[in-house]
Amino acid sequence: MPAPKIEFRNVTKIFHTRSQTIVAVQDYSMQVETGDFVSIIGPSGCGKSTLIRMLDGIIQPTSGEILIDGQKLDTSRRLPRDILRRMGFIFQKPNLLPWYTIRQNIALPNKIMGKLTKEDEAYMDSLIDMVGLTHYRDAYPVEVSGGALQRAGVVRAMVHKPEILLMDEPFGALDEMMREQLDIELLDIWKNLGITIVFITHNVEEAVLLSSSIYVMGTQPGRLLERVEIGLPRPRELGVITTERFAAYERKLTGLIGKLELKNIK
Ligand SMILES: Nc1ncnc2c1ncn2[C@@H]1O[C@H](COP(=O)(O)OP(=O)(O)OP(=O)(O)O)[C@@H](O)[C@H]1O
Ligand SMILES: [Mg+2]
Description:
Blueprint: E1 6-16, E2 21-32, E3 37-41, H1 48-55, E4 63-68, E5 71-72, H2 81-84, E6 87-90, H3 102-113, H4 118-130, H5 146-156, E7 164-168, H6 176-193, E8 196-200, H7 204-210, E9 213-218, E10 223-229, H8 244-265
Parallel strand pairs: 3-8, 3-9, 6-7, 7-8
Antiparallel strand pairs: 1-2, 1-4, 4-5, 9-10
């Protein structure tokens, strides 16, 4: 058995602020196999972003271990470039620079990270075509839609051919139709490139549509409550949303999260 692509072993992260101690993540364990599509859902403040930020080495765990391809990360310092290069990060806001075109924005971090060869540029342009941004590549961010900006964020994270994509509520700000469209495009990219994806969302429907398994987290302290396997066949089309099996998964997850939210109100 090959080692999991990503593994969290009993990871805890405690923040100490001036006035309080916050257990952002408590004793969290997760194994993501190579080529898997895994989602993490849970109420605001349950530690979802903290998990991803521990993977880019910006936040160090208080205890526990994180492994990539079976290799333990030295989380006590900034991660080495060869490990960072295996990952691509996509956040809720694409944060494009307004004075650069879409294509220049996509190229920028890859230029900063090292070289951007002619081959890399050709690959970048093929990704731009793949997500339907061809006509916008020379436009400025202010001239394009929110969906196009998010697509640019996805391409930007993929130019250096990461093996892992870490996505923190990437489509959360989009309307439902646009989000569904980008979800389906993301499934195509995932299938075509064989990458491993960890996806954070608030949206139960989106998590069921995309994932092979869903990690449901609770809050105070942020922790894993349940892992739900999604046995829907692939490839998945949007039509799957209307099936009874899909609805059953949605009910199960909404029930788990609903209970959490009620507890918070008390
Ligand atoms: N740098 C920090 N210093 C202190 N506390 C922090 C820091 N970062 C996060 N926290 C706290 O840790 C907890 C988890 O935060 P986190 O951002 O991971 O939650 P989340 O699940 O991503 O929430 P959301 O769904 O709102 O994005 C929260 O209580 C938050 O206030
Ligand atoms: Mg977050």
